[in-house]
Amino acid sequence: MRHLVYVFIPSALILLTAFRLAFALWQWPRVRQAGGLLPILIGGLRIDALMIAALSAPVILLAPWLGHYPAMTTVAAIWFTFAWFLLTLLEVSTPQFIIEYDTRPNRLYVDYLKHPQEVMGMLWKGYKLMIGIALIGLGLIVYSGWSIFGHIGPDPIMSWWLRPIWMLAGAALCALAIRGTLAHRPINPSSVAWSSDSMLNTLPLNSLYNVAYAIYSMKNERSAEDIYGGMDAAEMNQIVRDAAAMPAGPDTLPTLHRQTPAQKRERKPNLVLIVEESLGAQYVSNLGGAKLTPELDKLAQTGWNFRRAYATGTRSVRGLEAVSAGFPPTVADAVLRLPGSQTRFFTLAQLLKEQGYRSRFIYGGEAHFDNMKSFFLGNGFDELYEQSSFESPEFVGTWGASDEDMFNKLHQLLGQDKEQPTLTLAFSVSNHSPWEYPAGRIQVEGDPATVENTVRYADWAIGDFFKKARESDYWDNTVFLIVADHDSRVGGANLVPLRHFHIPALILGAGVPSRQDERIMSQIDLAPTLLSLMGIESEHPMIGRDLTQQDSDRAMMQYFENYGYLKGDILTVLMPHLPPCQYRYTAPDKYEPLEQIDEALAKEALAHVLWPSWAYHEQAYTLPHLQKR
User: Fold this and answer.
1) Whole-number Å distance between alpha carbons of 486 and 376
2) What pLDDT is attached to residue 118?
3) Minimal CA–CA distance to 276: which of 458, 535, 14, 497?
4) What is the pTM of this model?
């Protein structure tokens, strides 16, 4: 069995590398334009090592104990032949998949297997010759695998004292290869993403890994309908459109509509989205919180300050999907992490690319965390700057380079922009446990490692950046958004603790007038509002409201398995497999249960919790030219 391992590892590595090279040469114009072959080969070695280690691990661990038995050697040979078959089959399938979908085999490869009757009927009627060739090819794959692995004999008996050493060493090496790194976050597809061309980001992967990862990720695609109950799709879409006051779109993109801005601009402004980690309203003085944010409070007097903004969830990925894509929350995982949204999914970057914008993402940590790198590069963002791209950062903590380092990178990049307008999404990291930040920036109170002191530092970094920005050449032509991704320490005895979804949201710069807005609004309303302030006329599927021209009285939020829909002072809560309940919400943590349920409002809440899952599964949240045909 040990000899089988010695043969399988290099054979599989050569096989996968050969296919990867062939695909790269086939797509050479795109590879060359994106920067060349090296990132594909280096990333490919990491992913291949993971896949080969996973396939080899059972044999490696059992070899010292059972490798000298002929029967077990035969079982191991059959296993490696089967692994060879899977690796080769998926690689051979890849070219046609790229031609059809411009990506390696992914979850669609599995989705087709759910409908064997229809798929096999289609193939038999239209592709009899291809089926015959494929069967011969599959036979040749199995034959080649058995020719390599089927004639290797059993191992010599290993000394008793070597057996545990071999097993422990093998387990350690397999674990390291599967984890792919010594850093604190294991490898994932985002780790080897390197280009704004989403197809090229799949070339470092091998197709078996890509399919396996898609299957693994499907566990996050929980069905809202199974949890909260169903609704006719046409009725659901109508309710959602009515709530957003938009006309009906085409059948496949029912919320696609044209948005006309409230104002026109002679020059397209830059847009900067600053997403602040865990900066809930409980810390912000002008929103009734603790007096920890004097810089943000001063900025709030100079721009459009939303005093009743609500986050859509309690995780960063939830806030990022709302701010960058205008996508509402659902009981499933955020779309940044779902396999079906890694390309052709709507984002502001996709939309603004059509307007001539160049887009980038700045993050002080490792951008493959929460699959951010793969999602953003696959959906319209052209550039990505993470910790490794920061030159001589002032401070690096557990989560990455400090907020001031992120802002320094933002200031540098904005200062380098020429005539082409840009979208920049900048995500902070400092305001997160274990509460690390550079010394000498703030007046510390008590223990330095507290959330209160870290909020003070995050606020200082905001103020320091905007002092520089106001004196810069880019200030007059840049619209800035400052918004929290979510609150920290979300909890409480309420089904949906509304006060912990209350967050700061502020738009300023580029002629944005000063305004204190007391209307209830959601994170998903920010993107349409920003487009209107920028003077961008566009067509998109977002269901958020343009608050320059529409009123706002509702917010939606996912709190674990509970869904909250706040409209006016009525909070509707949907819970798994239970009827809806409603409360009159009059103050933080003050809820008055309503005996009589407003059925129309409950149906509106249900439509909004079902719609994101439906739009994701039906691939209805995209732009027309990006639809999969």
Assistant:
1) 20
2) 46
3) 458
4) 0.81
CA angle 558, 187, 391 (to 5 degrees): 95
Q: What is the mean pLDDT of residues 74-90?
A: 94
Residue 225 tokens, joined: 């309908």
Rounded distance between C-alpha atoms, residue 126 and residue 482, angstroms = 55
- On the question of pLDDT at 131 being above 90, the answer is no
SS3 448: coil
How many Å apart are CA 28 and CA 112, to the nearest integer?
Answer: 30
The pLDDT tens digits for 470-496 are 999 999 999 999 999 999 877 766 889
- Counting every residue written for the chain, the total comes to 629
Structure tokens at 150: 């089927």
Distances (CA, A) of 621 to 87, 445, 514: 33, 47, 33
| Residue 593 near residue 560, CB atoms below 8 Å | no
Task: Evaluate whether 375 touches 341 at the Cβ level (below 8 Å).
Answer: yes
Angle (deg, nearest 10), helices 128-149 and 116-126: 110
DSSP strand pairing (383-385 vs 538-540): unpaired
Nearest to 348 by CA among 272, 462, 427, 251: 272
Starting at the edge strand found earlier in the chain, the sheet holding 554-559 runs 554-559, 562-567, 570-574, 581-587, 590-593
- The letter for the amino acid at 436 is E
Residues 6+ away with beta carbon under 8 Å from 565: 554, 555, 556, 571, 572, 573, 574, 601, 604, 605, 608, 609
For residue 21, the SS3 value is helix
